[in-house]
Amino acid sequence: MPPLLQIRDLSKRFSGLVAVDKVDFDIQTGEILGLIGPNGAGKTTIVSLISGTLRPTSGHLQFAGTPIAQLPAFRRAHLGIGRTFQLMKPFPGLDVLDNVALGALFGAGSGQRKLTQARDDAAYWLDFVELGHRKAQRADDLGGPDRKRLELAKALAMRPRLLLLDEVMAGLNHTEVDEVIAVIRKVRERGITILVIEHVMKAIQSLCDRLLVLHHGQKIAEGPTEAVLADPQVIAAYLGQRRV
Amino acid sequence: MRAARGIGLGAAIALLALVPWIASPTLVQFGITTLLLAALAQSWNIIGGYTGYASFGNSVFFGLGSYGTAVAMAQFDLPFGVGMALGAVLAILCALLFGFPLLRLRGHYFAIATLALALAITGIVSNLEIAGRNIGLVLPLLKGDWVFYEMALVLVVLVTAVVFWISRSRFGCALIAIREDEDAAAVMGVNTTRYKITAFALSGFFSSLAGGIHAYWITFVDPVSAFDISLNVKMIIMAIFGGPGSVFGPLIGAVILSGVSDLLSTEVSNMASLFFGAVIVLAVVFMPRGLVHVQQNFRRLRWRYFAQNVRNHRI
Fold first, then answer.
1. Does the beta-carbon distance from A89 to B176 stay under 8 Å?
2. What pLDDT digit, counting tens, does each position of A176-227 carry?
3. Where are the alpha helices (H) located in chain A, listed in sequence order?
4. Domain containing A173: what range?
């Protein structure tokens, strides 16, 4: 089976700074791939390059057989790529339900035509992330943890084939982390392929099938989670900072 | 409840339609001006209020509507309807042509660029032979202000109906998402360019119709007054004062400000512009989201509502 996402020789340069440097990797259908690395390693940049928020300086991206490097962000959403933002981006002027309904209205396959149908879908996804009781609130009235769930619901309502999760657990306490891990497991059971950027080790270990480690924009390791976490190079570059 | 509202609205429109037969000629003239301003503020609301792009180019659309009508009627003896259509086509073409590059700019840059567009178009039109160069054109006279009053009223109802539809449609959701966060909207699958240009063209279309009615009413167009930027400023003030991104806010803003400004300008002419300046400062500080938003929140928060807005500005 060909990979869902194929990335070859991907680079992104911001004037002098090389944020992503000739990175290659594949994401297989149905897997959860973890993207880890120290701050500034280029993780979020890679997610932005996949979702189309940024255009690559060079390299190839192929999603389900379609080259997407030159496609605008909205077309990639229509193909089935959904993402969350690390700095949460709710639409503050809309209530929680309509924030999610937007995903249903414009997501994969260019979404629902009818607003009422989209709102029904949105209610379903809000229940899915256990945020159903906040439907009528304004999005900017939500607290941090609830905003993380909202980001997740917005992306899910787009009915993506590939979901890119950018630090959805940052700032959550232990119980909340466990709850979000459970939600992400439920997402995978629906056959959605997931790429997660995460610093929370518990989440990485319990969710990811494989890991990819970035350092200074370059790939320094890739493989099964346990093997990568035991790799001396990875420990030196990333884990060592925390575990000394 | 809904039916009652519908009946109330219908009755209000019917009452407004009767004005030319009961009110004095002066009041009817005031009515035409106010209705045209309301239509313009409501048109601006589509691009400025819902989409969040503060356009200073809407006076261009008004001017093109005026000139389309004037050129058709004065130069080619065509009927008024053809003139309006010509003006509308010009405005839509202008919105499509310039919308593409201009709507790539965000925030202040978009405002400045549309301002430049307004100045450039004024310059071009005042050098066109067919548009009467900088002298202008004289249109045939049609007696009976009631015709213009009723046309302006129909226009207000029409553009408000469209804004009402926008406020509860997929299209409107896309515009609001663009206003709130354009990058996030694109990632969620909104074709931002297409929606922005459509909103700009829609706004231009209705502005041009107001221009056409205005030109025929005053039977004269010249570049400076047809493309007057202060008219655009008025649209913005009225929409923001009433409530940008709401269905009735711009209309309420237009009626109140037009009324007060008319009273003031009959007393001392300078007072009116001073008044607009003061209104915009006070509105931005105390109620940046307009009267409609005040009405929605005042009952709950009382005077704290204003205090909160002031605090949010960090003055």
1. no
2. 999 999 999 999 999 999 999 998 888 999 999 999 999 999 999 999 999 9
3. 43-51, 73-79, 96-106, 115-128, 144-157, 174-189, 201-207, 225-230, 232-234, 240-243
4. 5-89+162-243
Structure tokens that stand for B288 in this block: 């940046």
Among all residues of chain A, which has the CA nearest to that of B177?
A91
ipTM: 0.89
Residues in chain A: 244
In a domain, A100, yes or no: no
- What's the total number of domains in chain A? 1
Chain A environment of B176 (Cβ under 8 Å): 91, 93-94
Shortest distance, CA B167 to any CA of chain A (angstroms): 11
B273 vs B141, which has greater pLDDT? B141
The CATH number of the domain holding residue A227 is 3.40.50.300
Residue A239 lies in a domain: yes
Q: Is residue A122 part of a domain?
A: no
Q: Do A106 and B183 touch (CB under 8 A)?
A: no
Percent of residues in chain B assigned helix, strand, coil, to nearest 5: 80, 0, 20
Helix axes A96-106, A144-157, angle to 10 degrees: 20
